[in-house]
Specification:
- The N and C termini lie far apart (46 Å).
- With 264 residues, the chain is of the alpha+beta class.
- The chain has helices spanning 12-19, 34-39, 75-80, 82-87, 89-96, 101-106, 109-115, 122-128, 142-145, 212-220, 224-228, 245-262, and strands at 5-7, 25-28, 47-50, 60-63, 66-70, 132-135, 139-141, 146-148, 151-152, 160-166, 170-177, 184-193, 196-202, 209-210.
- Among the domains are: 1-53, Uridine Diphospho-n-acetylenolpyruvylglucosamine Reductase, domain 2, CATH 3.30.43; 170-262, CO dehydrogenase flavoprotein, C-terminal domain (Enolase-like, domain 1), CATH 3.30.390.
- Helix 2 links the parallel strand 2 and strand 3 (47-50).
- Strands 4-5-10-6-7 form a 5-stranded antiparallel β-sheet.
- It is built from 12 helices and 14 strands.
- Helix content is 34%, strand content 25%.
Length: 264
């Protein structure tokens, strides 16, 4: 790990100001990916801006027919939240299946989304539930947020403040996980929302994506059989030591069927 300047701001405004001063500054939200990269000297920020002391970034609130989750809210907090369990059980289940106990108690929703690891779980939750990402500058719709592998719509100096999830009519998230890391080899969130049916897939490609054919079929009839014959082409899917692109294509259909069956 290379030397860096550590900063501990107490407000979002202070963090944004520190981020704008130049150099290669990085925000520390949970550290489960960034610290590991720094230890391996794959990342060498000049400044590390710790968001952990900013109280306004944590917490879960029910706002009408939405659940608002602060960016620094830990995965474990989302998993055990009575509000999330009651309103969006699929989201509580998703958070409870992230990594191991340490990751769930250190990692944050804002950090996960800003990092946008292609095998992470939260991107499927945000895209599948049609959530809105709130930053210190604007609101970003889920469909506009994820741009590619480790790439998002966040601009320089922009900080995620919270994520707002509309309560769906029904939803479920099912993943085929790596047995060691618990990352998604393929994860599918299927949801019937107020704005329509959404099916989001993570782990299979360079970034999370929706499956329009499955959404159309489920809008006509919410049934596992409706998606059983729908497959995603393997030519743009990941192929690695964990699974071939063809196997991932197969898993998308299998996980989608299970998610539809489990949705409530």
């Amino acid at each position: 790990m290379y030397a860096f300047n550590y900063q501990n701001p107490k407000s979002v405004a202070d963090a944004a100001a520190a981020l704008s001063k130049g150099g290669d500054a990085k925000l520390l939200a949970g550290g489960q990916s960034l610290i590991a990269a720094m230890k391996l000297r794959l990342s060498a920020p000049t400044d590390l801006i710790d968001l952990g002391g900013i109280k306004e970034l944590s917490g879960i609130k029910v706002e009408g027919n939405n659940i608002s989750i602060g960016a620094m809210t830990r995965h474990a907090e989302v998993a055990r939240s009575k509000e999330v369990q009651a309103k969006i059980p699929a989201l509580a289940s998703l958070a409870g299946g992230i990594g191991d106990r340490m990751v769930r108690n250190m990692g944050t929703i804002g950090g996960s989304l800003a990092h946008n690891d292609p095998v992470a779980d939260y991107p499927a939750g945000v895209l599948g539930l049609n959530a809105t990402v709130h930053t210190n500058k604007r609101k970003i719709a889920a469909d506009d947020f994820f741009k590619g592998m480790f790439e998002t719509a966040l601009a320089a100096g922009e900080i995620i403040v919270s994520v707002s999830f509309p309560v769906p009519k029904r939803a479920a998230y099912i993943k085929f996980k790596n047995p060691a890391s618990r990352y998604a080899i393929v994860g599918v969130l299927a949801a019937e929302t107020a704005s329509g049916v959404r099916v989001a897939v993570t782990g299979a490609a360079s970034s999370v994506f929706r499956v329009a054919a499955m959404e159309k079929a489920l809008a006509a009839k919410w049934s596992a059989d409706a998606v059983a014959g729908i497959s995603v082409p393997a030519d743009k899917l990941n192929s690695d030591l964990h699974a071939s692109a063809e196997y991932r294509a197969h898993l998308i259909t299998v996980m989608a069927r299970r998610a539809v069956e489990a949705a409530k």
